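Page 47, continued from p. 46.
Same chain as before, 733 aa.
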Amino acid sequence: MEQPNKKLENKGVMSRYGLIVTFLILFSVMIVFSAGKVIFSDEGKKWREVGEKETVIKDRVILPTRGNIYTCDGKLLATSEPLYSIYMDFWADGMQKDTLEKYVGPLSKALAKKFPSRSANQYRNLILSGWKQREKEERQIEDYRSRGIDKKVTLRSRYIRIIKEDISYVDLKEIRTFPFFNFRSNKSGLIAEEKNARQKPFGNLATRTVGSVYKDLEKGGASGLELKYDSLLRGVPGVKNRQKIQGKWIDVVEIPAEAGCDVVTTLDASIQDITEKALRAKLIETDAESGTAIIMETKTGEIKGIANLDRVAPGTYYEGNPNAFSYMNEPGSTFKTVTVMAALDDGLITPTDSFYVGNGLFQYNGKWVRDHYWRQGKDRGYLTVAEGLAVSSNVVMSKIALKAYEHNPRKFVEAIDRIGLRKQLKWDVPLNGIEGTSVIRYPDDKKNYWSKTTLPWMSFGYETQIPPIYILMFYNAIANNGKMIQPFIAKSFIKDGKVIKNIEANVVNPKICKDTTLSQVKKMLEDVITEGTAKVVKSDYFTIAGKTGTALIASNGGYENYYVSFCGYFPAEDPQYTCFVGIRKPKGPPSGGGQAGTVFKAIAEQTFMRNVRLTPADCKPDSSLQKLPPVKNGNWKKSETVFEALGLNKFNFSPATDWVQIRLDSLQYYPKELSISGKSVPNVLGMGARDAVYLLEKSGMRVNLTGAGKVTSQSFAPGTRVNKGTTISIVLQ
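Result:
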């Protein structure tokens, strides 16, 4: 009896096992069927879209790194650096309400202390309202779900901006140490959105010429070189998807961004600084409305320094308008050289032809022409063409024009055309309207009526509008043996470290006049300095040739205030540089030589001396000196080399470090060791730019340098703890 019972028992076990296996098979089939339905049906497509929306943000633009702008000697004028916009994702997987409420107070206080654009209470309310917004969205999602409504809830609490301003990488590292933000991002919800921002390491140096970009960098350049070459500088945007993986948002790059080209300019940082300082000093002294100064290499056309300063407050001047191109003034006496050149080249006068000037008054067609000395009442008799240009006689110029062109004024304008002053040119700085062009009328001009007195008045620089850049170009052509070249600023374009294009000067006119005319005009311009209106411009170091200009400014149908200018080149016998200086509405007696000319002289002498190279023998101190020449702090070994070459006495010293402070008396130099540590800000006071920048960058800091000479101040005190990547500003004088 036991055997049959055992068989029945085994049969029952197998039946139950079969049922389980059958159930598992059916369950597996159902899973496979459901999976297939999700994969291939419309419902699957819907749920994939929902999942993707929750975990993937598609097609976000990657802004490319904008190209840098450099001086000709490799110094940065404009560059891009990363900034970060700070947001919170209140749907972060690990964020907990009780933890947030626990830390929101300390977090708000830390944020308010670091970024005071909001108070601690405002930060607290902003963060808590973000969490309340999430709770509201949760309730709405649950409500839709319970009612079977297939509608997506917009999750506004997923991306709430916490800090108003964009912050640096150093600041980002710091806020990640704040309470709550020091948790992983899937718990804190901290999101740092990177973007590029434009910085100018040299501050306002050549800032109007370099230009600006829009606050939204995606819009590109707004003015200056930034606008002119925006298509090259901006690069090509890329595409990324922002994907949520394990509760953390990660950027997945689909198409990488392509960085923009770098632009290398012709500007020389040292000459640019010299130019700006000389112009600013004179503008402050004369309380002028504005001014411009431009210096270029004679043979290449490269602009080495360009300053455009406008008064924004008493004694305060900043780069504003592109004055070198936008001063659409009557040029005044700098145009007299054009008149003389035209008449000489047409063979209608000679340098020794003389004209009666008397007491400096001459009436033509009922209108008086006056010389600047006419009130003196002195009869000067006759002046030659050369003498008339030297003393800047309006009467001589008007009589030259009438003798040469009274019966054929068109020939005068044709001579100006032959020189090249009426050619329409495009410049590196974007302009509007007629800015940057010469407006010189001609006899049949319907827009600018040619009156009976236009010819004599045009001869000394009225009834025309010529911006400074054209005057500079004309005088440079004289210095350059008659070859007129267009001044330019953008020198080359670099992509991925390789030069893709070099720029050379555009030849406007290969020969502005005959060689005999040119030599005669050159001699007359030298006489302006030695015997004429620009004696104050004469230098003890080299010869200068040029011409002063003083013109009344047209205003409301009349004339008021003055525009003074000087344009010339140096050294006169072998010109290396040509320079123009113009000042609008200076206070005091107007003087092209005494006001604009002295700025020219300061720029010229400092630029010239900058390039002087002396031998060690030339530098040895005279025995009459009571003190040794001062030496900058810095590298002791390099200083020792100089001392030995010049035969200067030094204290025998073997410091443990190469870096020292140096003091001196009448006998010798004494070094004192400087403590240099990578953990603290080094003391660079009294050092030259090279040593100072080397030490600061070696310590992990970025350097913003202003001025020339030796360091007189640094924005972080020596010995302060170094934060890697922090920007330190140093001023040299």
